[in-house]
Specification:
Elements lengths: L15 E2 L2 E2 L7 H4 L18 H29 L6 E3 L4 E3 L1 H29 L1
Antiparallel strand pairs: 1-2, 3-4
Helix pairs in contact: 2-3
Amino acid sequence: MPAREPDCSCGRGPSVAQGKWYGVRSYLHLFYEDCTGASPDGDGSSPHGAWAPLIWKVSLSTGTLFLLMGAAALAAGSLVPPKLEGIGEEEFMVLDVQAVRYNHALGTCRLVGMALCAAAGMLGAV
């Protein structure tokens, strides 16, 4: 069985002499050297190695975007004053249909804003 050289070792130290290893093999070099993508098996492949940072960055940026959009929708739905729906006296009341639709759109804005903020919270928890 040929002696295998470690992938991420600097080749110095008391346990290395002319490419041969002596003593108990230590995996501390995997923690203290720059061994990106190295696995203990030595094949250099990791099932989550390349995708974990990408997923983290995408979920963080999407969550931030959802939070900003949700805050804007909440602000628009809450801070814009509603219109009066009924115009007239007690006996003769006229219902303004455009004002009803406008007020319904403000309520929808608040609902969408809350949903986007909740989705941003879930993405931030991932």
